[in-house]
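Q: I have two molecules that I believe assemble together. Could you output C-alpha cells for the complex as a whole instead of separate predictions?
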Amino acid sequence: MTTDVAPGTMENETSKVMSLKHKAAYVPPPIPHVEMNQLPLSLLLRNLTVFTAKEISQFFKLNVHTGGKTPFEKKLELLNMILFLRNQFLKLYVLVKWAKTLKQNNFHSLIDLLNWFRNANMQVNNCTMALKQILGTMAGAKLPNPDLATSLEVLMLGRPNLPNHGFNLNGSQSDNLTIPNKLILKRLRDLNTCLSIKISLMTIPSQLAKYEIKDGRIVFTVKDEFELQLSTIDQNSPLFFVNINLLFNERLPLNLARLEKHINEILFKSTNPLCLVYQFLHKYILTLQMYMIHVELNALGLNGKYSGGHLVHNYDSKKQIITIKYWLQSKIANTCKCVVGMDKETESIVLEWQNPDVNKETVTTRYHGLLNNIESIIDEITFNHAQMIRADLLRTDTFQEDNEDTTSTSLLFQIPTTCATVSQIQLKIDQVSGIFYFHNPSNLLLSYARQINQSSNTQDLITVLGRLKLDKVDSILRHMLDKTGWICSDVVRLKSSIVPSTDSTFSKDIFVKLKDWPSNWFLVLTIISSTNTCIVEKRIGKILSVKGVWKLKYMDKKNVITSKLDTMTYPKMLTLQISILNKIVNHMIIDSLNELKIKNKICTFTTEDSNILPPYIIRKDGKENTDNITVIALGLESFLEGSKALNTILESSMLLKIDYQKMDIELYGKFKTDNEMIRCQCDELSIKFLEEDSLSFFMSENFGNLNDIMLYLSKFRKKLTQLIALTDVMDTLHSNFQSMDFRVVELRPNEIRFKYLPMKDSPDNEDCVIRIVTNQEKVEKLDIKLSEHNPQAMIQRFLDEKEGFAHNFIFHYLQFTLPLFRASKEADYTSSSPSTVKMHLFMHSLQEFHFLYRNHKVGGELSFIIQLRSVVRTRHQENTQYFVRFAQDYSQPQLQQQHPLSKAIAEIQKNAFSLALLKEQNSNTTSSTTTAGTATAGATMISTASSNKLLDLQDSSPTNAAVDWSSIKCVRLGSALACSHDQILPLLLQFHKSISDC
Amino acid sequence: MATSHEDGSATHPNYYYYVDPSLPVYESQQPNPVDDLITIYGLEEVARQVARTNADGTKAVKLRKSYKNQIQDLSGRFITIPSRENGKGGEISDVIFQNNPDMMNQAKLVEGMSEEEYRDAMMKRDTGLFEPPQMDWDMCSTVIGQLMKSHPSEFKNSGFDVDDLAFDLNGTGTKTKKRKYKSNGSSMASPNTELQPDDMKRRRLE
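A: Yes, here they are, computed for all two components at once.
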C-alpha cells in the first residue's frame, strides 16, 4: 500500500460510517399492501353465513310437501347438505386461525414485500425492454469511443466521479492531511528493521529460506512456485499478508481477498506460522497446477494436436488425479494410460505412464515438470509406445527394419507384386491416433489397414498380413491365369480349404479350367503362403454343386504338383494347358470307373513297371510319345459287373489305353486258353487279334468328345459281353458237333449260322441259326432255329414247346438224333432201283419216335417204336441209347403169319431181337470186338467205340452199302434191342432192306 | 453519493456537461431493492421460519397441508379430514368469494342517522335471514318431524358415511387430548408439539 492511497481509504471509511448513521435514523417507507383480488375476512364469513341460511331455508321449503321423495331420501339430502355446509365452516374456522397467526407474525408484510419485489422486477424488465427498443430505433446513431460508465455517472450525478487524488479541482486549499515523505520513509525503514528482528526469531521452513526484506515487507521467493510478501506493523503484532505472485504463471487471476483472509488467519493463530503458510501455499499451488494441466490437456484434446477424440482425460479434483488416455482407437496397444498425480515423496506433480509391458530400465515412465510441457511428454510416450509395438512386430520376423527411415517409425513388409518380384510396403503407426497406416496405399492395402487396426494383438496382426499376402498372390495368379486363357471360377467355393490354414500358413484355392474341359472338372491351385515363402500346389478335382453346396467329389491326392510361387511363369501356365488335359481325362475316367465300381489302376511307363505291361503295348509305345498315352488296368470281373463265370474265358485284367494325340481309345483283353472263337473272326464285333500274341485281342474306338469317353467304355463292355457269349456258344457247338460237316456259315455278334448236316442232306445255306438274346448285362437265352429244309426241322416244334433247354443239350440232341432223320434219305441212296418201301418218321416226343415202313409192292406196312433212354453204365456215367421194338406185338405166330410182311418180321425178329442168336453170335465174335463187357442183368454190352466204325458210318456211301446183320452192334433184348447212336442208321437201313426184300 | 453531487453542483459551472442541473436529479428508489429489505422491515424471524431451506442448506421441514391439528380443539370427532383429495371437502371459493352487493342486504347511511344507529343497522342487516318469512321455523320442525328416527346402520350402502358427521356419539372422542391442548392455551398447538422442533419454533414466536 502506498501512502497516497491511504487518505482515500480513510475518506471511504468515514463515508461508510456516515451512511450507517443515516440508515439508523431512516424509517423505511411503507410497503403497499396487496389488495388486488383480496376480500376482507368479515365479508367471507358473511358470504358463507348468508349462503348457509339460504340453503337451509330452501331445503325446508322444498321438502315441506312430501313430493315424490321418501323420508329416507329427504334425510339423506339434509345430512349431505349439513355436512357440506359444516365442512365449509370448518375451512373458514381454520382460515381464521391462520389469519390470526399471520397477523401475529407479521407474515402479511412478507407477502407485501414479495409482491413489491415482483412489481419492481417487472419495472426493471420494462426498462430493459424500452432500452432495447431505443437501441433498435437508434441503429444509425453512433457515439465515437463511448464511455458508457462515465456517461451514466454524468447522467446520475451531473459530473463524472473521477478520483481527485486529493487535489481540489477548483484550486482551493484542501483540508486533507498529507503525510510528509520523510515520515513515510522513516516508517518504512523502521518496519524493515522490525521485520528483520522478527524473522530472525521465527522458524523458517527450508523452502522459504530465500527471502529479502525491503520496502517494509519480507519477500519470500520459492522457485517455480510463488513470491509471498508479508509485513507487520510493530514488533508485537503478527505478520500480515501483503501480496502474492505466482511465479509459474503471472497472468492467472487470483482471489487475493480470500487468500489474504486465509493466510492472515494462519499467521495469526499458528505457533509456527511460516511452515503452515508454506504448506498451505504449496498445496494451493499444486492444486492450481493440476488444474492448469487439466486446462492444458483440454486444449490439447479438443483443439490441439490430439483433437478428434484421440486423447481424453479425466480430472478428479477431489483426489487430485488426472487420468489420461491416448490412442483411443488403437486396439493393438492395450493400455494407453497415463496418470498425473502427486508424488508423496517429493510433493510435486508427477506423470506416470502406466503400461505394464514397458521396460522400465530403458524407457522413462515418470515425468516431472509437466506444466506447459504436457504435449511434448505425451508425444514422447506415444513415440515410445509406437516403438514398443514396432519392436514386438519386428520380433515376429514378418517385417524388416527400414534402413532409410531415420525416425525408425516404419516397418517394411514384403508383398509379391508378380510371381517373381516382391515389393516393400511401409507400415507405420500414427503417433497421434495409434492407428496403423500404409505408405502410399492401394485399395487392397486400405481395406487391410482397416483389418490391421481391428486386430488386438500381434498375432492377429500377423494373421491379417498373412491374409493380405495371400489375397495379393491370389490376385496375381488369377491375373496370370486370365491372361493365359484359363477360366477362373469365382462361383466355386469349398466349405473348407483343401489344405487347411494353420497358425503360420494361409491357404486359398483357385478353381480354374479351360473352355473345352469336361464340366465340373477343375484344376485346383492351392496357394499356401507363410511369412517368408509361398507355394502353389496343383491338383485335379471334380467339384459338384449338390443342393447349392459345392462338394469335392474327386481329388487326385497322389499327383500333387508343388511349385514355388517364383517359379510360376506365363510360359509354364501355357504348357500346363496342354499337359494337363490328359490328366483331367484320366482322372475323369478313373472317377467314372470309380463311380461304376470298376477296379482300376493307372499304369505308368516307368521301367520297373514295364514288365507288368504286356509287350504289345510297350512295343507301340516305343515309337510313340508316352506323354500322350494313358494306360489304365481294369478288373474284368468288376468291369463286367460280377459275372465270375467269364473269368474262365478271359484273363482277369484288361488294359484300357487312351491315346490323346490320335484320339484313340483301345481296350486290350486276353483269352486264357486257345479256343474256337479265336479262329472265327467276327467282323462286326471289330475285335482284332494281335499277331504277336494270338490269345490277345483289342477293341478300338476313335473319340471325338472327351465327355463321351464313358460311352465308349460301355460300348466296349457290350462288345465284350457279346464276345464272351459268342465264345461260350461256339465252344459248346464245337464240342457237340464233332463232325466234318460242322461249319460256321456266318458269325455275327448276336447270331451264329452254321451247318452240321452232311452236304447232301442240307439244301439250305445254313442248317441252324442261333440268335443270342442278350439283355444289358448277360446272355438271356439262345434262340435256336432250325432251317426250313433241315430234316430235323420237326424237332423245332418240341424245342419251342418247352423252353429252358440247355443249349448244350439241344446241340447234343440234334447231333444224337441225326441218324434217325437221315435214315430215309440214306435208304434212297443205298438202293439203286426206285424203292418199293417208303419210310416215314413220326415224332411223339423228344424221347419217342415212330418209324413206319410201307411196302407198296406187298401192300403191307411195319412200324417201330424208337425210344431214347439213358442207361446207367457205372455210377458216374450215363449213356443214352436207342431202344427199338415193333409197334405191334408179333410174338404170336398166327399174327405174324397173317401179316403180309411176315417174312421181314421173322427176319428182324430173328436177327435183331432174338436172344437165340446170341450164343451163335458170341462164338462168331471177331477179334475186333474183344472188349465185350461183363454181362449184367442178362444184357451184354458191346463196345462201339471204334473209330474205324465211326469213320465207316460217316463215309457210308450207296456204292459200298454191303451191310448185313452181323455188322450191326447192338444188344438184343428178345422183343427189342438197344443200340448206340452210331448203330441206329445201319440198323434202320437193314430193316429197310429186309422189308423191301419181301 | 447524493452529498457529493450537491458539492459538485455548487462547484462546477452549469455548462460543463450537457446535463441540466436544474432538472430534478435521479433519486434511487425507496425502499431500495439493493438493501436487505427483510431486515429493514424486521421480517428476519418469520422469514427464517417459513424458509424452505435451513441456514445450513438442508431442506427445511415442509409446511403442513392438512389442517387436522387446527380443528382438534373442536368438539367433533373427525376421523377423516374433508379435503379436495378425498372428495368430501366441497368447493368453497365460489361461495365465499362472490362479491355481489345486490345479493346482500345493505345497510344504508340515511341522512340524519347517527353513527350509532348506522352501526346498529349494519349489525342487524342479516338477521332477517333467520326470521320469518325468510326462515319458517315451524315448517322446519314439520319437515324434521317427517324424517323419523334414524340409526347409523340405516345409511349403509347409501353413499353416506355417518363418520363424516364427526359426531362424538359414544363420548370418548378426543377429549383428553383436547384438554391437553387447551391447557397449552394455543390455537396453533399441534398434538405432537413437544416432539417437533419446527412447531416449537412457531409457538415460541407468538
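A: One point stands out. Residues 108-132 of chain B form one domain.
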